């Protein structure tokens, strides 16, 4: 299907809210319920969106919507250049024993690509540079303060530039974690992952205590 910027924004909001209702999508995007239903029907027909019946004691049935695997891939397709770097390196692997070495080479390439993010003179400024730069590249990413006492900043990534690859080899997630750590200059830990059923990947930034 042909996808324009408004389609991408709609899918992005849906992924952030997943599972989302028609009303929540209306409130977030600022369009009518009819327009939301039309988009959902089109994306369902394309296999990008699915729905589940929400329990309701009375009245009309209510549905909650979420992206399918194809929908997640659709969001990730904007990162073709990064995915190509990963695939080119990984597909050349002929021996499992050299995987770590190759992944280190990919990491160095990605750190060099996003190296300007290290120019910030504080962690907060580096986080801002990183999220701004990745957003310009099509990532759906944000950072927020942790509400817990002495909580560390959290990076939230709502789409994945290598979704299918990560499903086959989760060491790619370790690669992304190490890239973020080097760019930010502090330890970064993947604390929740979409591969485990979470709606987004969350990275804890910095060391506690």
UniProtKB/TrEMBL annotation:
| A Pfam cross-reference name | HTH_24
- What is the top-level taxon of the source organism? Bacteria
User: What's the name of the protein?
Assistant: MarR family protein
What organism is listed for this UniProt entry?
Answer: Thalassoglobus neptunius
């Amino acid at each position: 299907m042909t996808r324009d910027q408004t389609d991408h924004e709609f899918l992005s909001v849906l992924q952030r809210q997943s599972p989302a209702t028609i009303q929540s999508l209306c409130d977030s995007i600022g369009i009518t319920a009819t327009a939301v239903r039309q988009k959902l029907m089109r994306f369902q027909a394309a296999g990008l969106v699915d729905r589940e019946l929400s329990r309701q004691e009375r009245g009309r049935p209510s549905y909650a919507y979420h992206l399918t695997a194809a929908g997640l891939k659709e969001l990730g397709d904007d990162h073709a250049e990064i995915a190509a770097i990963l695939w080119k390196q990984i597909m050349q692997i002929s021996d499992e024993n050299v995987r770590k070495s190759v992944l280190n080479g990919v990491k160095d390439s990605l750190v060099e690509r996003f190296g300007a993010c290290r120019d910030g003179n504080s962690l907060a400024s580096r986080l801002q540079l990183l999220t701004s730069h990745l957003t310009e590249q099509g990532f759906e990413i944000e950072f927020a303060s942790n509400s817990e006492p002495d909580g560390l900043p959290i990076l939230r990534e709502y789409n994945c530039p290598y979704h299918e690859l990560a499903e086959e080899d989760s060491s790619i997630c370790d690669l992304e974690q190490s890239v973020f750590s080097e760019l930010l200059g502090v330890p970064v830990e993947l604390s929740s992952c979409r591969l485990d059923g979470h709606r987004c990947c969350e990275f804890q930034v910095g060391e506690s205590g």
